[in-house]
Amino acid sequence: MSEKREVRRRRNNQVYPYRRKSRVNINLQHNAELGQISGFTVQNNCSVSCDPKSGVLAYTAGCVIVLHNPRNDKQTHIVNPGQKCLTCLSFSHDGNSIVTGESGHQPHVRIFSVVDRCQVVSFPSHKYGVSCVAFSPDAKFVVSVGFQHDNVINVWDWKRSILAASNKVSTKIRSVSFSDKSDYFVTVGNRHVKFWYLESSA
Fold first, then answer.
1. Alpha-carbon distance 37 to 55, whole Å?
2. Which helix (H) or strand (E) segment is 118 a member of?
3. Which of helix, strand or coil describes residue 30?
4. Phi and psi torsions of 59, nearest 5°
5. Could you give the 3-state DSSP secondary structure of residue 56?
6. CA distance 97 to 61
7. What is the pLDDT of residues 105-152, one digit of tens each?
8. Rg (alpha carbons) of the chain, rounded to whole number
9. Which long-range contacts (CB under 8 A, 24 or more apart) does 149-157 make?
10. In 14-82, where does DSSP find H-type helix?
11. Which end of the chain is more exposed for a tag (fewer CB within 10 A), N or C?
């Protein structure tokens, strides 16, 4: 048998019933801001990118994009809304956007606005993870390369949210880069250098 006991407190030799303060629900998303990150999860050159105009350095730290300004030694951050670990990223040539790839189940290719620090669009692209990404210089296309077991290259017309082209590969790709005219891109991997031409530019 349990007995209900009323908790009381004494004040000036008088007994008052004790009232527990009600809990206040605090939304930490609006009251806490990430200030500084020490460390990174950079695994290769595809996890680091530099804005060619401002010189701001972007790199991955878990599910966060760290934007480091070497001129004033300050950081700003963009958090991946999917909460998956970021594996690669790249600035657009005008420095206004960043494209990222991630690992895990049903990874996405995501494009973020650097100014607004928010996601613009995302694509469920590969099965296991994304190893490297790149913008075309005209900012029309984004290319994404899947992990070795995925073996897929996708080209996205990201402003229209459509898959413009896709192809299978048989070897591991370590890096990708567009030509200055955005009419083809090059992949480099284990014992290969391949040129991929876009049909629309032919």
1. 19
2. strand 118-124
3. helix
4. -150, 165
5. coil
6. 18
7. 889 999 999 999 999 999 987 888 999 999 999 999 999 999 988 889
8. 24
9. 150/126, 152/126, 152/127, 153/187, 153/196, 154/109, 154/123, 154/125, 154/126, 155/198, 156/109, 156/123, 156/125
10. 28-31
11. N
Q: Which amino acid is located at 50 in the chain?
A: C
| Count of domains forming the chain | 1
pTM above 0.90, yes or no: no
Backbone angles phi, psi at 178, to 5 degrees: -90, 155
Does residue 104 come out as left (phi exceeding 0), alpha (psi in the -120 to 50 range) or beta? Answer: left
Amino acid at 73: D
10-29 pLDDT, tens digit each: 555 555 555 555 555 655 55
Contact present, 118 and 127 (Cβ < 8 Å): no
Q: Which domain holds residue 184?
A: 34-201
Nearest-angstrom CA–CA distance, 119 and 136: 19
Bridging pattern class, strands 184-189 and 192-197: antiparallel
Amino acid code (one letter) for 128? Y
Is 3 a member of any domain?
Answer: no
